[in-house]
Design brief:
Blueprint: H1 3-13, H2 17-37, H3 44-76
Helix pairs in contact: 1-2, 1-3, 2-3
Length: about 80
């Protein structure tokens, strides 16, 4: 995520448990993917797991962005 997004997450996570949980999930998925990236070889099953984790990570980012947009909209009003 970009620095601005991280700053907004830090600002709103204290008051939004859903955002905090999604951010934690996103970070965990990132760590799992990083572990796979450091392996010299992946089995076909591991490649499928990487794809599954990538999809979950993207979905969590989409949900985070929607929440941030909602908070920005609420802040503007």
């Amino acid at each position: 995520m970009e620095r601005r997004e991280e700053e907004l997450i830090q600002r709103y996570a204290t008051q939004d448990p859903e955002l905090r949980a999604l951010h934690d999930e996103h970070q965990d998925l990132k760590r799992q993917l990083d572990a796979f990236r450091h392996r010299p070889y992946l089995t076909p099953e591991e490649e499928l797991e990487v794809k599954r984790l990538q999809k979950l990570k993207l979905a969590s980012k989409d949900r985070i962005m929607a929440i941030l947009e909602r908070h920005q909209h609420d802040f503007a009003n």
